[in-house]
Design a protein that fits this description.
single chain; 445 residues; alpha/beta; Alpha-Beta Plaits; 2 domains; 7-stranded mixed β-sheet; 4-stranded antiparallel β-sheet; 15 helices; globular
């Protein structure tokens, strides 16, 4: 330690590294190169691009190893960096850090990854900074329902609901950290609210492997806590250059292995499935960096009608999307995997409800992986679409509910879980459609 104590610390981060027992100045050239290469791998693609632009500071999310968060916060504050948020769920801090310190930050032994605090978006609801507008087209809901769902909402978060007491969706106006806040809130209040499902219809491009992506890690932690997280695949299925279909455009956190990642299907406004297709804009797999097979399923998401506020930004600026219900009430027709995700969350709620009503003894709660498998197994394949476009097919609420009715989770793992036999098909309209009878599995990150 005597030799180490003589090392000149050119910055607070270098001092942290020295105190941690890492001599940055005396490392052999080969070891230093390996160290620098490893540090660069910790910095996500978005942040590397931003560093090349020459900005003085960077909005970052720093994910750390357990036990390092408090000391890192103190070091950042002493150096004059602004702390924008602390995220215990994933052991991370969001901060405005000096650009010159980002690589040294990544070199720190305590740091797991350094990501850009990227804005998340829901297509069609963006402002110039990439966040959601306050007047994004969300229709005001009952204040009584909001009070029941969240009497103490997380800070700086726009409250919205899907209209189902068991499903709460939280949007953010500030960027990626808002999703972390929302998931943390749901986990902390899941028993009080009896919350089982988190709907995340927001995202951004994938900038890092899943294990280093703060949004993905937040989703994985929520799943570990017993929540079922339903995530939109994204709307980047058409290449910007030539508007032709492309692959590898799933958005984060749709690359979360545990998430139910949903693409958008078009139903042609008919009950039957014969004329259904996957929307050309629906994002396709495999996921960037990890090559995970996503989406898991697709669901109706094209020109879906919802009740609308006449004063909302979207309603006023999308006259071609305005319509009326059968009783004359104004509706807004919107398209995207975000809408398909809401539909899927509703189906998941019905699946959980059916399972809770089965009356079988010692039933265990359905896990996220089991619900995903049920949705995939009972899905109806879409003609002329591959696995990376549709997953196993279009969700089939009747089939998934039928499975929930006969699955007995009181049985030990490895035992037969069906309480009775079931035909792998569903009658939709006046036709019988075979289930996919397939499950596509993604390994954990």
């Amino acid at each position: 330690m005597g030799a180490m104590a003589r090392v000149w610390c050119s910055s607070y981060l270098r001092c942290l590294a020295v105190l941690a027992g890492v001599s940055l100045l005396s490392a052999p050239p080969a070891a230093a190169q390996q160290r620098d290469a490893a540090a660069k791998r910790k910095i996500d693609r978005k942040l590397r691009e931003s560093l090349r632009e020459g900005r003085r500071t960077q909005r970052v999310i720093i994910t750390m190893k357990p036990g390092c968060r408090a000391s890192m916060r103190s070091a950042l504050e002493e150096h004059g960096d602004a702390i924008n948020g602390e995220h215990a769920l994933i052991d991370a801090l969001s901060a405005e850090a000096h650009s010159e310190d980002v690589e040294e930050l990544a070199n720190n032994a305590c740091v797991q990854a350094v990501a850009a605090d990227a804005d998340v978006r829901a297509d069609g609801a963006r402002n110039r900074s990439g966040g959601l507008r306050k007047t994004s087209g969300i229709n005001p809901v009952s204040q009584t329902l909001l009070a029941r769902l969240a009497p103490k909402p997380p800070p700086n978060v726009l409250r919205e609901t899907l209209g189902l007491p068991s499903v709460a969706a939280w949007g953010t106006m500030t960027g990626a950290t808002g999703i972390g806040v929302a998931l943390e809130f749901t986990i902390a209040n899941r028993y009080r609210l009896n919350a089982r499902i988190d709907n995340v219809s927001l995202g951004h491009e994938i900038f890092a492997p899943a294990q280093d992506d703060p949004l993905v890690q937040a989703v994985e932690k929520a799943t570990d806590a017993g929540l079922i997280v339903v995530v939109s695949a994204g709307n980047n299925g058409l290449q910007k250059k030539n508007s032709e279909a492309g692959y590898t455009d799933i958005t984060s956190p749709g690359n979360a292995p545990s998430a139910i990642t949903v693409g958008a299907a078009m139903t042609a406004d008919t009950v039957l499935r014969d004329d259904d297709g996957v929307a050309p804009y629906s994002s396709k797999g495999p996921t960037w960096f990890d090559a995970f097979a996503k989406p898991d399923v697709v669901a109706p998401g094209h020109r879906l009608a919802s009740n609308a506020s006449l004063t909302s930004y979207l309603y006023k600026n999308l006259p071609g999307n305005q319509g009326k219900s059968h009783n004359g009430q104004p509706v807004l027709l919107l398209s995207g995997s975000s809408m398909a995700t809401g539909v899927t969350s509703g189906v998941v709620a019905l699946v959980l409800q059916q399972h809770n009503q089965n009356g079988l003894h010692r039933q265990k709660a359905l896990t996220a992986n089991l619900v995903k498998a049920m949705l995939q197994f009972s899905a109806v394949p879409v003609a002329d679409a591959d696995y990376l476009t549709q997953g196993t097919g279009e969700i089939n609420a009747a089939g998934a509910i039928a499975l929930a009715k006969v699955i007995d989770t009181s049985q030990p793992v490895g035992e037969w879980w069906l309480s009775t036999g079931i035909a792998p098909s569903s009658v939709i309209g006046n036709q019988t459609y075979a289930w996919s009878q397939e499950v596509i599995w993604v390994t954990t990150c």
